Amino acid sequence: MDNNQYEIDKDLLSKSGYFKDLFNSYPDEVEFPLTSDYNAKLFGYVVEWLERHKDNKAFIPESPLKCYDFKLVVGEWEEVFFNKIFDNKYENLLEFINMTNNLDLKDCWNQACCKLACLTEDFNAEQIMKLYNLDENCTEEDMKQIEQEVLEQ
């Protein structure tokens, strides 16, 4: 784990369901360690996102997306912000998505998932399987059945 420390307003961190529950469970504590499960750099982005949205509600993309231009969907600041996280590495974005999910930071999680959806809109099945490290475990018979079901739709 990185040895970064953050001084963050408790009200700001309370936007995270995880920290809100932690504060309610331990009301007298003033310091909470960041578990080794979290990348300190990505946690810094969580803090940056929280600070950006402390006075204004984050825009939540509609689901399902009708437009896959991320900047048009959520705005310019989010475009720059999530590109910084992504940094041409899907692992960064996937780790950030997992972190925001674990921290119960739904609005940020929704935006991060939207970014991933926009990035992978044109991926085929093989590219998706590679991205998520999925193994092909369907039999030839399974594949024929799936293909038939798709054709029937």
Structural notes for this entry:
This protein has about 150 residues and is an all-alpha fold. The protein is about 60% helix and about 0% strand. The chain is built from nine helices and no strands. The protein has helices spanning about 10-15, 15-25, 40-50, 70-75, 75-85, 90-100, 105-120, 125-130, 140-150. It starts with 9 loop residues before the first helix and ends with a helix.
Which short descriptors sum up this protein?
mainly alpha; 9 helices; 153 residues
Radius of gyration: 19 Å
Biggest sheet: strands, sense, closure?
A: none
Percent range of helical residues:
55-70%
Low-confidence residue ranges? none
- For the record, give the distance between the C-alpha atoms at the N and C termini, rounded to a whole number: 48 Å
Mean pLDDT: 88
Give me the number of helical elements. Answer: 9
Question: What fraction of residues sit in β-strands?
Answer: under 5%
What is the tally of beta strands?
A: 0
Class based on secondary structure composition and strand pairing? mainly alpha
The rough form would be described as elongated
Q: Helices and strands, in N-to-C order?
A: HHHHHHHHH
